[in-house]
Design brief:
13 helices, Fumarase C, Chain B, domain 1, elongated, two-stranded antiparallel ribbon, two-stranded parallel sheet, mainly alpha, 62% helix, 6 strands
Length: 340
């Protein structure tokens, strides 16, 4: 609809043609949402399927004109970018909610003392507030990283056509405005070649999982009988098929395990794009599946991790008792003796 509106504003489409196209596209959208749209493998992909159905509804003479001054190459890049931008916004919301949960724990446990660790050995006493804020600051950097990537992705490739633009006098800036992009990609060849925006999102998700996997690993340790610093709610744990006493931290283990999966999706796209000649190549058809998977995995994991953290119980007494072992105040004592 945005492309058709732009074409009409430039005099390439007539007003009645624009109206017919908009009406037809809305009908196609309704059919897809209601599960009535018939997908045929002969149509090759979603773009051709929609264009074919549009032509069936309003006639091929008008329906075919929608493809003026565009190619599937820039159309695919535009659709992909729209998905990536939407995913950034969704992930930012979920990250901020998780950070808020951490801040609530930090506020509630300023005086809850626990051992700090180096090499997983007792090091110095810290508060649980201090501990959980370390993860909050990691996620705050993740927020900034996503915001930076979103800004870099906010350039519209539509109108780049196959690789060299179009001879039609179009208004790409209008298309960008309608679709919510900050600006256009100024070089058409770059417009259809670029997948940096997908790599950036995959990298950002990989770093998020680096942070959440570290937290989950420590939640697994801290919930074990050897530590007993925290208690994970039964809602986020499972038992054993044979050992009735078991309470396994499955959510933490699954998030930790899925970290390798999102790393793999990043490496996959990096490998696909390595040494790829400019403009569109069929290799780039493989750019979406891994990203879709990483986005869904990240969204699901952040939701469940936030819900789990809201319900964890902090075992203050066990944390304090652990501070009585391992000479945690040795550094402070040494500093005192030097000062005196």
């Amino acid at each position: 609809i945005a492309h058709a509106t732009m074409l009409e504003s430039c005099g390439i489409l007539k007003k009645e043609e624009l109206d017919a196209i908009i009406k037809g596209l809305k009908k196609v959208k309704s059919e897809i949402e209601q599960g009535k749209f018939v997908f045929d493998i002969k149509d090759e992909d979603i773009h051709m399927a929609i264009e074919k159905r549009l032509s069936e509804i309003i006639g091929s003479e008008i329906g075919g004109r929608l493809h003026t001054a565009r190619s599937r190459n820039d159309q695919v890049a535009t659709d992909f970018k729209l998905f990536v931008k939407k995913s950034h916004i969704e992930l930012l919301k979920l990250l901020k909610e998780l950070i808020q949960t951490m801040l609530e724990h930090a506020k509630a446990h300023k005086k809850t003392i626990m051992p700090g660790f180096t090499h997983l050995q007792h090091a110095q006493p810290v508060s649980f507030s201090f501990y959980i804020l370390a993860y909050a600051f990691m996620l705050m950097r993740d927020v900034k990283r996503l915001q930076n990537s979103l800004e870099l992705a906010d350039f519209l490739p539509l109108g780049s056509c196959a690789c060299a633009g179009t001879s039609y006098k179009t208004n790409r800036e209008l298309s960008a405005k309608i679709l919510g992009f900050k600006d256009i990609m100024p070089n058409a060849m770059d417009g259809v070649s670029d997948r940096d925006f997908a790599l950036d999102l995959l990298y950002d998700i990989a770093v998020i999982f680096t942070h959440t996997s570290r937290l989950c690993e420590e939640m697994i340790l801290f919930s074990s009988s050897e530590f007993s610093f925290i208690t994970i709610s039964d809602s986020f744990s499972t038992g054993s098929s044979i050992m009735p006493q078991k309470k396994n931290p499955d959510v933490c283990e699954l998030i930790r395990g899925k970290t390798g999966r999102v790393y793999g999706n990043l490496i996959s796209l990096l490998t696909i794009m390595k040494a790829l000649p400019l403009a569109y190549n069929k290799d780039m058809q493989e750019d979406k599946e891994g990203l879709f998977d990483s986005v869904k995995t990240a969204k699901d994991s952040l939701i469940i991790l936030n819900a789990m953290l809201k319900e964890i119980r902090i075992n203050k007494e066990n944390m304090l008792n652990a501070c009585k072992k391992g000479h945690l105040l040795a550094t402070d004592l040494a500093d005192y003796l030097v000062r005196e």
